[in-house]
UniProtKB/TrEMBL annotation:
It is found in: Cell membrane. PROSITE patterns: ABC_TM2. It is a multi-pass membrane protein. Pfam families: ABC2_membrane_3. Belongs to the ABC-2 integral membrane protein family. Residues 95-344 form the ABC transmembrane type-2 domain. It comes from Lentimicrobium saccharophilum. GO terms for molecular function: ABC-type transporter activity. Coiled coil: none annotated. This is Transport permease protein.
Length: 346
């Protein structure tokens, strides 16, 4: 009854609030080597629009790569040296818009919004003083060609590993309950940890082979680069696989049969994984309640990690917090599963 009546309501709410292509409060950093009245006016107009919020003031262009790797900003705005001075001399000063195109849709919209605001500023200034036009120069990094596959491959890897791994373990254990073989294990001298480890290890190997296959296809067929450490990427993938498997085991301790386990694995995880992970729809555009809820979604953190390694070439120093979050979630699900087994043994 919960699945029949509760799931449609949850789906409608998620689709209604989470699916939006609007941009709000995107973090933007600024490089303004010689601040003046004109650059301040442009900055005020950009940040008053509601599309952008000021993230950080950078001292030089050398800090831009570090800023993007840390995930501090979605876009960096660079004002030319002596901006107002060039306008007074009749020259055309430039504003460079550098966007993180690892999410090409968001990057395109951010650049278009900024271009529109700068064009409006140009029209206002020309109408009053006839000053020369300000030229906006967009530049995309990490994905200059704005290929959609750069966004979809990390997300698809995450969804497949999450759903397949969790579903395999939850259904296999629920099937043993239905057949009565789980009771044999529960009354045996085996400890709960031994039972869980015996169920997880084979699927870790199978899911790891699956992950390697997906990565090979993405590299050789779709041309998605792996700029960072391959060993680090595989290690993070194993961690996420273990997390997904431990979640599947936890679901199996709740479900009494295969059908319930499949429904929980498919519908309780698939939609939140797609909608609340930031895979397709930016999390910062969602209501605050859904933003807080997304913090409990393991795929959100793994997508950040895999994009950092594959597209940005970042090391563990840039996503150690996300790795610790995945480790914590894995420990919680494993301990909860063991506790459930202990309750059954008691």
């Amino acid at each position: 009854m919960v699945i029949l009546f509760g799931m449609p309501l949850v789906q409608v709410l998620l689709f209604g609030f989470a699916i939006t292509n609007e941009i709000r409060d995107a973090k933007v950093s600024v490089v303004d080597p010689t601040p003046d009245a004109v650059t301040h006016a442009i900055r005020n107009k950009l940040f008053a629009s509601g599309f952008f919020i000021e993230s950080e003031i950078l001292n030089s262009q050398e800090e831009i790569a570090e800023n993007f790797r840390k995930g501090e900003s979605k876009m960096v705005i660079i004002f030319e040296n002596n901006f107002s001075g060039k306008m007074e001399r009749g020259e055309h000063p430039t504003v460079q818009l550098i966007a993180d195109a690892s999410d090409p849709n968001t990057a395109s919209m951010l650049v278009n919004y900024a271009n529109g605001i700068i064009s409006e500023f140009n029209r206002e200034q020309q109408a009053t003083s006839g000053i020369p036009l300000i030229i906006a120069e967009p530049r995309m990094i990490y994905n200059p060609a704005l290929k959609g596959v750069y966004m979809f491959v990390p997300g698809i890897i995450t969804i497949l590993l999450m759903l397949v791994s969790a579903m395999m373990t939850s259904i296999s254990i629920a099937r043993e309950k239905e057949l009565g073989t789980m009771e044999v294990l529960l009354v045996s001298p085996l400890r709960p940890f031994n039972i869980i480890a015996g169920k997880v290890i084979p699927y870790v190997l199978l899911s790891f082979i699956n992950a390697i296959s997906i990565l090979l296809l993405s590299y050789y067929v779709f041309g998605v680069p792996v700029k960072g450490s391959v060993l680090l990427l595989l290690a993070e993938s194993i961690l996420f696989i273990i997390l997904a498997l431990s979640l599947g085991i936890f679901i199996s301790t709740i479900a009494n049969n295969q059908q319930t386990a499949m429904m929980l694995s498919m519908f309780a995880m698939m939609l939140p994984t797609i909608l609340l992970s930031g895979f397709i729809f930016p999390i910062e555009n969602m209501p605050e309640v859904l933003q807080w809820l997304s913090l409990a979604m393991p795929p959100r953190w793994f997508i950040l990690i895999i994009k950092s390694i594959m597209l940005k070439g970042s090391g563990i120093t840039y996503f150690w917090k996300e790795t610790l979050i995945l480790l914590f979630m894995t420990s919680v699900f494993i301990l909860a599963s063991i506790r459930k087994f202990k309750i059954r043994l008691a």
